[in-house]
Amino acid sequence: MNFVYWLRLLKTLSQIKGNAFMSKRPLRIADIAKKAGVSPATVSRVLNNHPYVRDEIRQRVLKIIEETGYQPNLAARSLATQRTGILGFVIPRTVHTFFSDPYFARVTEGIAQACNAHDYTLSLFLFYTVEDERRMIPRLTRKGLVDGIIVQSTHLQDEVLMRVMDGEVPFLLAGRPVAPLNVSYIDVDNVAGGYQATVHLLQLGRKRVATIAGPLTTSAGIDRLEGYRKALRERGLPVDEQLIVEGDFTEMGGYYAMRRLLPLEPDAVFVASDGMAVGALRAIREVGKQVPRDIAIVGYDDLPIAQSTTPPLTTIRQPILRFGARAVEVLLDIIENGSSPPRRVVLGTELVVRASCGATI
Amino acid sequence: MNFVYWLRLLKTLSQIKGNAFMSKRPLRIADIAKKAGVSPATVSRVLNNHPYVRDEIRQRVLKIIEETGYQPNLAARSLATQRTGILGFVIPRTVHTFFSDPYFARVTEGIAQACNAHDYTLSLFLFYTVEDERRMIPRLTRKGLVDGIIVQSTHLQDEVLMRVMDGEVPFLLAGRPVAPLNVSYIDVDNVAGGYQATVHLLQLGRKRVATIAGPLTTSAGIDRLEGYRKALRERGLPVDEQLIVEGDFTEMGGYYAMRRLLPLEPDAVFVASDGMAVGALRAIREVGKQVPRDIAIVGYDDLPIAQSTTPPLTTIRQPILRFGARAVEVLLDIIENGSSPPRRVVLGTELVVRASCGATI
DNA sequence: GTGAAAGCGCTAACAA
DNA sequence: TTGTTAGCGCTTTCAC
């Protein structure tokens, strides 16, 4: 019994059993048409919910589709319609916190849910090296792979953004671009968020309010800091540049930023992300100071972790899931109706008071 | 100047500037062929690195492709080759911790990196509702969308798994299936990991070693607990079922599990994930006990957070990134060479000693 | 309402 | 080595 014979045997067996070991040829639209005694065009109409199909025939076709488990071949459909039903979510190389910042997992979830709801498939493009970007971007930006792209906003002049802008595929930025580009974006009102947080601390009577900012190469970092400055300015308070330390949205970054801040004896800190706030709490605990008694803390994001720190974090809630969902909706709108004029969607934030700010609840 | 006129103007402008505002028709292979004075077939050969193309011609074609920025239409290629160049990563609805457990973000990263390296695109299928699954699975399991699927292993008899097994698309389970199915999977040696952790605690002289297990509906939960049992058994120690508490891989779950354990006064706990360990540490801190003096802790995963807890976590390191990378490799192998015989890949674990176990380093 | 036929843009077998 | 040609499976005019 030689190998080829054995292979053929297996193949036969698998066909008899009808399992997928070596699968028979998938059904095509023509097969369904024949079984239903209609033309492929009619089956296609049924598939795509076109009007002008006699109801009796529609039912007959649907029944056969149901019985056979027929699924249209998506590659063929894409070729014919010039649509793939896939949306891309792109994280440029310069966003190195995709993993360490739970924020991104959450946004991804929001986008995924919205894709499910709108019957789109989500493709994730995580770039790590220049080589990754060089190879994948050209595909991404040509028709035939994705119908639209959500690009995570990042450093000024990021190459990914430039090339996506230059491409043929509709796109939307997740996060305001740092430079004032004429593109569509969706963002959270980070200035308002930073402002809310800082005002809250000031209203609680704190005198030396410091901030651990996000990376000042990102609009989120810049805007939250701007909100902080605005709050001080409006109340006629001086902005002490020493009390502003830049972090990188990671726990470690928050820890080290807080260590730099501690000798300056702030009595409150607005930390521009919950992740960094966790690190800041650790730094404070290590020197034996108490939160909120000695130092009050307000974070940003309202990730689940904010409820589990000791003490629980007062924080600025971003509607992260809704952010992802809206991003998909806006992108679909752009795909349908063109990218002009650019869409600008800004979602609001909300102060969530817990224990770390020292407010009596 | 009415609206239509204005639109037409913009369109003209955009064409002059050559930007993508309203893009001209993308180039096809025939256009390149004409410019190069060869046939489409030759261009195709160049594109696909076929031999038997005269070098001079190859260069000429490549030059034109370069100049024009031509990119082949992927839908058309997919239709012709019956390959899409897309791999799917599926998270069934019953895995509700995709967001809260950083483990998944990490695995996703590993898979994404490997996809980049192998020139595949990654599609993410996060299911939340039965409805999601009902609608998306049939697509997923028919040729034309993805070339292969990585399915996150989950509860016994999960519907997703059943339907993927029944489909036409090659697949690989991430995580041993709970039931002994005749399918390919990749897993970490969780029994060995649980064993290592428990033995370590016993060797440090701990007498009442408890465990916070993962969900016992998952193979990871089951196997890590089995490792714990095995360690006690081998040393002739009794397994006190009271000292085994089931968690859910979340921080909250770890917290509550530890609260149940505290009255039983264990002097050590093997916690089956770092996330749960963070919760356990919090519960211990709240009752004023000290780690590792009163209670020693060993976690599982070696996520970055393990380095930032107080005290830093001794833990079992899983090669998560490598797990994702290997998963892709094995899946590609299955796609190339068929799913029979089933592949079984099991990666090793490693004990990382930090402070929480009380070992003098 | 329905069917015939012409693509969608690429690959691959076959012929030259 | 290269070109010709026939699909890949679906949608969509256009005619009936």
From TrEMBL, chains A, B:
Recorded hits in InterPro entries, A to Z, give:
HTH_LacI (IPR000843), LacI/GalR-like_sensor (IPR046335), Lambda_DNA-bd_dom_sf (IPR010982), Peripla_BP_I (IPR028082)
PROSITE patterns the UniProt entry points to? HTH_LACI_1, HTH_LACI_2
Fetch the SUPFAM superfamilies from UniProt: lambda repressor-like DNA-binding domains (SSF47413), Periplasmic binding protein-like I (SSF53822)
Q: What is this protein called?
A: LacI family transcriptional regulator
Native source organism of the sequence: Ardenticatena maritima
| One Gene Ontology term of the molecular function aspect | DNA-binding transcription factor activity
Is the keyword DNA-binding assigned to this protein? Answer: yes
| Gene designation per UniProt | lacI
Quote the CDD domains the UniProt record gives.
HTH_LacI, PBP1_LacI_sugar_binding-like
Claim: Manganese is one of the keywords in the record: no
Pfam families on file: LacI, Peripla_BP_3
**What keywords does the record list, in alphabetical order?**
DNA-binding, Transcription, Transcription regulation
HTH lacI-type domain spans which residues?
27-81
The organism's taxonomy opens as: Bacteria, Bacillati, Chloroflexota, Ardenticatenia, Ardenticatenales
Q: Where is the signal peptide?
A: none
